[in-house]
Amino acid sequence: MSAPRTALRRSLAAAAALPLLAVALTACGYGSEAKDDDAKKSNVSADGKKLSADTVKIGYFPNLTHATALVGIQEGLIAKELGGTTVKPSTFNAGPSEIEALNAGSIDIGFIGPSPSINGFAKSQGKNLRIISGSASGGVKLVVNPKKIKTLDDLKGKKIATPQLGNTQDVAFLNWISEKGWKVDAQSGKGDVSVVRSDNKVTPDAYRSGSLDGAWVPEPTASKLVAEGGKVLLDESTLWPDNKFVITNIIVSQKFLSEHPDVVEAVLRGTVNTNKWITANPDEAKASANAALKELSGKELPAEVLDPAWESIQITDDPLAATLQAQADHAVEAGLLEKPSLDGIYDLKPLNKILKAAGQPEVADAGLGVK
Known about the structure:
Elements: H1 3-17, H2 22-27, H3 37-41, E1 55-60, H4 67-74, H5 77-82, E2 86-91, H6 95-104, E3 109-112, H7 114-123, E4 129-138, E5 140-144, E6 159-162, H8 168-179, E7 194-197, H9 203-209, E8 214-218, H10 221-227, E9 231-235, E10 246-253, H11 254-259, H12 261-280, H13 282-297, H14 303-311, E11 313-315, H15 321-333, H16 349-357
Parallel strand pairs: 1-2, 1-3, 6-7, 6-8
Antiparallel strand pairs: 3-10, 4-10, 4-11, 5-8, 5-9
């Protein structure tokens, strides 16, 4: 039996016996699975090299679109590459708070959506972060009340939720509205469609109460709405070339990348191996992600939500850089962002080194990489 499978069974049993709160997990550190205490103390990595940092602080969301982090930490696949360097995870519910944590040094590496990555980079004038890998594509849907909305044209005059002003889904929905020729004030959300900013945790309840007619949201919120009787009217992936667009990046503080490139590389080896394991073992990976969510929130997703949500998310090492530029352009057009310079937002050299060594194709930065 593989180590990830054994770990999965242990984690499922532990989750069933003792659900943990997110605070408890956030306070815990995950170190090497190696039994050699001396190796741990000396930070010897999986390839036998001593690493330069005792710990690496990783931030992510308790969300299926952050499956690489959920599974990679749950299964020890990231920690395995770090040897004695301890992984200290922290969870966030919004991109801006994760960017603040990165800026403050509370985390070193984060899994995060494109809009917070763009905003963080632009506000710091390109000095705080780099995108070092992709993580996930897709997993965003427009779900509506089928009794009120039959076609896309029926959205006019209706109340549709997005997670947060200026977040990735909010920008996408405002851009879609604009392309329909409808007018909405981006800040207030008022116009031909009422754009209601609603936290993903409360959106299903608001939909159930009738105060929302639908929502443009990521998974698993979209599938939760379907379980409440909603209907998927549009999958955002159909709006993008090859049905792919970045939903989750991996970012690193420039300071940490400069001071601990070996640790960053080890984390990336862990994420590449995690993505490979997820792709090869989708059912086990889905169960692992759900077990991680249970540990973080005390509640696992039911099958009617988990299965369609997982199916709609594509795990990938490719940051899909051209789609990040397009999303930035959409935010500018909506009036939510002054046109930013994204030159240098990517540093994909460590990732491409790892992919090349693994015999996998390298990925592109769309001309936005460090020179």
